[in-house]
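Session log. Operator J.P. requested a structure for one protein chain; no other inputs attached. Running the standard single-chain path with token output.
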Amino acid sequence: MLKVMLGIIFGVATLISTGVSSLWNIQNMFSLRVNTSPVSEHIVPVMSQDIPKEMSLSVKKQEIIKNVVSKEKPRNTKTNSSPVITNGSLVPKETIPQRTAITPGPLIAPLPATPPPPSWILTTKGVIEYTNGARSINGGLPALIENNILDRDAEMKLSDMFAKQYFEHISPTGVGPVDLATTVGYAFVIVGENLALGDFGGDEKLVTAWMNSPGHRANILNSHYQEIGVAVGKGMYEGRETWLAVQSFGMPLSACPVIDAETKMQIDNNNTQISVERAQIDTKKTQIDSASTSDQNYNIYIGEYNNLLPPYNALIEATRALIAKYNEGVQAYNSCVTSASMH
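Structure written below.
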């Protein structure tokens, strides 16, 4: 009886042991299937580690490309986004050439019925004195200052007329008042010339005859003139002995505002440097445009390009300021010349 019961108990125990083992195997099998998904999830993060690198590089390059594009857009503000566009604004104004000469027709004295007394003569000092007297009583104009260079100008004209036997403002060889003033080294804005031929009877009568001639009178009373040179002389003209007189008037170049030559030189030097720097910028921009965004030096090219812009733009702005200052002087000078040339 005892043996029978022990056998039953042993059989039940064996049965239980076999069931537990089967259940464990079933669980292990299902556990492998369940764990398949976590394993694949570990693979995804591993692969995704390359994605942030590509995205980061892509975003960085897009920003650079965007910056490069923006550099081509003109802006009013001073930034290093693009080279400043000059549009020819770095060209200073030009001065008006001072080549004006006022030359009324020559004055010829009528032949007197009787020869004048031999005691009268013409003098440079007397002609200047009566000329300034006429200016004083006609509008209170300032006296003209005798200028040695203009005296030489008048003497050359007088000698040339006697030598070549002509009585005109332009010589037979084409030399006029402007040419004479240039030859003797007189720097001028305008020059004028009065001529007289004949026996006038003295300095006062000569100046009176000029004042009675509208063109010569206008020359004597020209408010722009500041200096005068005079030459008088007696010689043979067309077969008879007679007097010639020359008045050379001048408004010196120094009467108008001085053009700042040093500023002009600085502008020219700056423009040369601007051309050099612009060529460097254009070369670098071409390098950027032709480079691939995957080029490992792409960002270096961008940095080099941006580094070129600030000094270039600053130089342009400095040059514009110099030109504005220079142009003010040129405008004042040109206004002075134009005003003088209209009278």
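Operator note: Residues 34 and 219 are 118 Å apart (CA to CA).
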